[in-house]
Amino acid sequence: MKKLLFLALLGMASAPSVALAQQDDGDVRVTKAPALTSEVKADYTQDAIDNRVEGDVKLRLTIDSVGAVSKVEVLEGLGFGLDEAAVEAAERFTFSPAEINGVPSAVVLSFIVNFSLPILPSSFKGKIVDKETGDGVKASVAIRYTGTDFDPVPEASMNTAEDGSFGFMDVPPGIYDVTLKVPGYDDLKTQIELLNGEESSASYSVVASPENLNGQTLESGTRRKLSAVRVQLIDQVSGEDVAETYTDAEGKFGFRGAAAGKFTLRFEADGFFTSTTEVDVKTGERTTGTFYVEKEYYDEYSVTTKAKRARTEVSRQRLELDEIRRIPGTNGDVVRVVQNLPGVARAPFVSGLIIVRGSAPQDTKVFLQGDNIPLVYHFFGGPAVINSEMIEAIEFYPGNFSTYYGRATGGVIDIKTRSPKTDRFHGMVDVDFLDTSVLLEGPITEDLSIAISGRRSYFDVFLPLILPDDGPDVFVAPRYYDYQMWTTYKGIPDHKLELFIYGSDDAIELIFPKGEPQGNADVQVTGIDLRNSFIRGQFRWEWRPDLPIENTMMLSYGINQTSFEAAENFFFDATANISQLRNDTRVTISDSLALRFGTDMNMGYADFTIRTPRFNDDSDTDDGEGNGRPNFSRDGVQASATSGQLQPAVYAEFEARPWKPLLLVPGVRVDHYGAIAETSVQPRFSFRWDIADKVVGKGGVGLFTQPTSPGSEDPTFGNPDLTFEKTLQYAIGAEYRPLEYVEVDTTVFYRDQWDLLSPTSEFVVTPEGETDPLVFKNEDEGRAYGLEVLIRHYPQNRFFGWLAYTLSRSERLDLNTGEFVPYQYDQTHIITLVAGYNLPYGFDVSARFRLTTGTPATPVVGSAYNSDTDGYVPIYGERGSVREATFHQLDLRVDKKFVFDTWLLGFYLDVQNVYNQENQEGTRFNYDFTDSAPVTGLPILPTLGVSAQF
Amino acid sequence: MKKIALGILTLALLAGCGRTFEPYWRILDFRVLAVKSSLPEIRPGQTAQIEALTYTNTEDPITYQWEWCPFRTSGGDGFECPLTPEELSQILSAQLAQTDGPPLMIPPFDFDLGTNETAEFSYPAPQALLLQYCESIQAFAANAPPEIAAAVPVVDCSRGLEVSLRLIATSGGKKIIVGKRINLWLGSTGANQNPEVVDIQIRPADAASAAFLREQGVTWVQDPALEPGLWWVSIPSNGSLDVYANTTFETRALVDPVSIDIWEPPAPQGAATEFLPAEREVVVYRWMTTTGTYDPSERIFKDTLNTLELASIVEFKLSQKGDDGDFDDDGIADSQDPCPATPVTGDRAEEDCSVEIWSIVRDGRLGADWAQRSLKVVGVRK
Prior knowledge:
Number of strands of chain A: 65
Number of strands of chain B: 20
Largest interface: A-B, 99 and 81 residues
Structural class of chain B: alpha+beta
Oligomer: heterodimer
Radius of gyration of chain A: 49 Å
Shape of chain B: elongated
Strand order of the largest sheet of chain B: 2-8-7-4-5
Distance between the termini of chain B: 49 Å
Largest sheet of chain A: 22 strands, antiparallel, barrel
Shape of chain A: elongated
Number of helices of chain A: 4
């Protein structure tokens, strides 16, 4: 409140002095002096006021014998009309007559008329500026009258405007004390004299106080800098807010000139627990500190608001890392999580097979930013070789994907990596029963950041400790490790350079006791040494200027090594050098037309050595699948060779909007498969149509081809006259998004496959008369069709989840009967329900429920005893004529985070098969196949893990 | 994260928790344990005696039906011959008509080898005809459907022609189909004979067991003070040895070393040579029993890895779980358990407590031999 007090006083004084009008020569005496009986005040003239004139006008008054003023003379004047005013007033004076010797008589006397200026209000305007910067600063200003003329003493105070300006109006003139109080600045006291009726102005330069209380606010656990946190400085004694401020982008805050004493700092921000801490401010010292504020929910599910390219594909599902981490039963595995999406059949056991829309697992390819991953999983369906911590998201295309992707007839999984963190160095350690993962990442320079991670199992370390001395005759020593290093450089505007190096190494050894080989008369296995490793580097260059063109180039190279040794006549060793070169360009031709085109070259060579033993068994029926086993020589095979691979491809597709709601994507991809000297032209087309608000129709049709499996075209181990596998994919569907984070997606699909690779017992006789097994032929056919429905709640409001349902039928041609029969992975109904929710106190729960139709099986209707091989051989019935039991399973996961100032400690309990359902994964038989029992999957399996990150 | 391997481990650990099946080597009812030919490779003019090793625990008779087939038949097809003799003759005639060689007479084929307990199989045709036949059927099967192609031996015909024997044995309503191959000699060098099992021997597995058995008056057990190598005792072929349950023994089958051929294995496809260096045949010992437990039940002799003698030794234990009479260690005391829980004497002991053991030896070149012995459980080691 502006407080203003003032008093205004006016005054005028006069002082007569008497003289006789006439002088007596003799005994003349004034016996009675004239007395002023009526005084008239002289008027102050405006001219005199304006000229600040005041003082006395000396008059000579002649007063007659009746006391009237008969004559006025100015003896000393002031001018400016005051003399006249004095005369005019004096002429109207009346006196009591003077007496001389007792007789009223005229007299002359002197009279002074005093003119004092009137008291007029003053004004005081000013501005307070920072002495160093000259910028105005906000402050409080107080003035107090120093004199004694007024009672009460005039005083006033006010806060300046933002620019430091202030003004006091109608202030009594005089000398004032001026006191300036500026937060963060030293107090300033001075004086100013305000002249009567005048406006005074002043500018005060204040000196900033030293910042004696400051700090940085970080998120507990992650040490993320928190901006816009309200920081209040509270006096502990009075409980009053002394000051407040907000943290800047670096999370920093400061208070200047905080008085000595004990205070409470209070931190408050949305999404965080309000926290307080005590600080002791001492005179002449700076109090500083780092203050941690705990988030209400860690790993909170919330929609990321990154700009994303509009969809052009018929079917694409993107899963962010927050979701991937939380899905029970997948153990955070980056690839396995795809198994929970529509169109994907349940994989047997714990295998990571991705069976998409009734295709074979090998028909679906996994890419890392467009680069073929040489190995997806560690041994025996172990964890994915790609550490989940390095990825940003995965994108899954169950079919009708862009021409950018090729050499796949099923689906595509593209793993998107993230850039290393740049704010500071971070670390993570994840420990569980089987392996430990370590991650370290951070900035090297302002533009260069790096991340390094690694994981190693220690099964081989602790297994000998738990095996009894007289335990099994087999010593098992499996171990795996993987590693990743990636770096990002953003020092050139519009350009981004990335280098990614990753690899894995698996080894398993089974050593049988000396002198006790296993096997049979054809092969004597003394142990098994199985190794699989790769190292691969990927360089990416992204150019995204503010132009209607963008380009991404990727070059990768890797070495894959696989070896297997079981006996002197049973081993395999292969080393492959595989390189991939991609260039992808997108040109925006107009608002309604864009062109994407590029090259995709896969090339390399492999050196391999193989030796297979003799064999004599009669299991020529490939377990009832119908086509027979490759009719290799029963003497075994020995070879050592180098084979090359050259698979260049080009592609192009338009993104055209002839009508704004309609997006048409016609494209073509041309692949050349060098090993079989075949070229494939694959036209593809898809569309998306914004039918209504929040409703999108979509569809597509296209040809997708892939080479036959590596080595199948080898003259020794395969058939050089093979062709590529072909699939014609059709899909149509719709998406409905009632809320930003809720989507309903449905797709009807049909797949027609032909020229599929199949083993065969057929052989030919060469012109030299030698038999030559065909091993493989392109004679299999398949088809699949179905309906997919996905109701998905994207991470938002601390919840994520989806319901996926697939109704499908997948069939293969039985080459013996010419009839289509259910494919081995066919599952009529596939229902997957996934949900996760953030709870308070650092808890997080998630669940997954799956229900699928049992997979087809071929019944065993009898057996025969082979006396030479000493074992029974099954006799199969109609192929795929029975099904295994319906599968259903519930998995739960609970995460708990303990938040410390500088690190996070997390525990999780992942319980697979909560209600211990004995799901059938296969059938096992007794020795003569007269009795059988289901092979059941995992029983209830709790897994406990702990992770720490800083 | 990623506890997949843990899952595998757990699965492996829990694998034994489900219902278990009787092991292959425990013979509880009618079985055909093996079939052998007196000649694994038959030369022109020779006749082989075909014999089946069978077991039944009932009085039901065993019937036999023997057949042969000039193809390598498949167990998945029940070792059924893919062609009838008539079809075979027609094919051969057609194939031979396309050859430039001297005309050959196709003998009438009869695949039936009779229904006796044993069968005889003679070299079925002139050697030249068989050689041409071998080459002809390969030409015929070239580009043929897989089921035909799979039956054709993709080998060098000069190494012989493998033909198949089939036995359908029936007893008590149970039918067993058995397949076995015989090689018809077509000019290769080197002998191929059956391995010969000359004896089966037994000894206590350790000194404590030996001492216990001797304390119980089991007279065949040697003095444990002797070297263990001297503890071996032959099990008589026409009698039995007394043993105690809950006692661990070792058994071994003695194979005449002379019966183990030295041969030149065919080199694998792609090798620079046709044959690998000469080596002794690999011998696979298979042990079977009517009760008890073998560990292991199969062992392999490989000249460079062990010795014929050591490879033949396996551990054999007759279990006795408390007093429940579960001699066959299947967790159930039932009629399958031949012996009672407590020692018995008299006729019943002889009847119920006998244990049959077999050692079947195969050489990987279609040769086989076996020996059968008996033990008698006379008590239980507590």
